[in-house]
Amino acid sequence: MDLDIHTTVLTAFVLAIGFAILFIWIGIRSIRKARALKFFRMRRDRMVTGWRLIFFSLVLVILAFLLNRFAEPVIYNFFPPTPTLTATPTITQTPTITLTPSITQTPTITTTPSVTDTPTPSPTPHVPLAIEVQFTSVVTPNPAAVFSPLQFARALDENFAPIEPAIVFQNPVGHLYAQFSYDNMLVGAQWTALWFRGVELVHFETSPWDGGTGGVGYTDWNPQPYEWLPGLYEVQIFVGLQWKTVGTFTVEGDAPTPPPSPTPTFTVTLTPTPTATRTPRPTATASFTPGFSPTATPRPSATPTSRYPTSTPTPAYTHAPSNTPGTPTATFTHAPTYTASPSRPPATHQPTNTPSF
């Protein structure tokens, strides 16, 4: 029977636990039967045998704990794991069905395709340049570092062993781990894990190595449930720019529907803006004043020879007075006019009464 190191350690752990339980059960039965015996020597022998079996069971429990926790890393230090290359499946073309005529027996001419689709070989895994520029380590990786094939599981135990490993997962997948064993690693060397769905890079992690030189490790991915689209996934492990191991698994079933994204609602708040109100100017009210002309006429200067200057406004709509010697002749105005200042008639000299002596 060909068993690997992990399976051997797990088998020894199970056997130790099984024998421990068996010894406890036999020891307890022996002690109970010893109490029913009447002879002291036989009762003592049975009691000693029962307590010895219980003591051996405790030793087996301690041994099982040590095997489960420390046996596998110690064995890997003496027997480093060797990576096993997994064969990449090649795509084979399925022959198409040719229809046979059912009406006549005359053979038909089938066209032979001139171009045959030959599947191209998958390229050698490499680190994309966008991820390579994120390297921060200055430690030169050890080219002799080795990694085991990847094992995929939804959970790991306390020793980083996969629980129920598989290569086909049904949606919803949840948190997925890719577990591996390694050896000859240098602390601080840059290592990278790339997760692909088909040819699309869906997740990656790259950082300086913070584990030991040999042991067990893992890379994991825990996206949103709706990001686990069905298809073939591939995980690649690199140390520096050197490819070390690769593993594939398949996701089946439709992914959960993503939650609807919230639609932004825009609320327009109207802020009252003070608007300048134009106050209408007061309307000029025309006042009718008789005897004013629209043109402002400067007042005449006072003449010393005129003792009684008169300032008679021009009457509106009046009949001409009779001509009186010594008085000015009134002018007739057909319509009232608006004037800013009263106009004076031209100054006239009145006859001067000269006294006689």
Report on this structure.
- The chain is built from three helices and eleven strands.
- The chain is of the alpha+beta class.
- Among the domains are: 5-78; 129-252, Sandwich (Immunoglobulin-like).
- The protein is elongated and about 85 Å long.
Overall mean pLDDT: 75
CATH architecture tag of the domain at 129-252: Sandwich
Series of secondary-structure elements, N-terminal to C-terminal: HHHEEEEEEEEEEE
CATH homologous superfamily grouping of the domain at 129-252: Macroglobulin (MG2) domain
CATH topology tier name of the domain at 129-252: Immunoglobulin-like
Strand order of the largest sheet: 5-11-10-7-8
Q: Radius of gyration, rounded? A: 58 Å
> Total number of β-strand segments?
11
What is the CATH domain class of the domain at 129-252?
Mainly Beta
The amount of helix comes to 10-25%
Strand-pairing-aware structural class: alpha+beta
Number of contiguous helices: 3
Give the termini distance in whole angstroms.
180 Å
Largest sheet: 5 strands, mixed
Q: Using the alpha-carbon principal axes, give the shape.
A: elongated
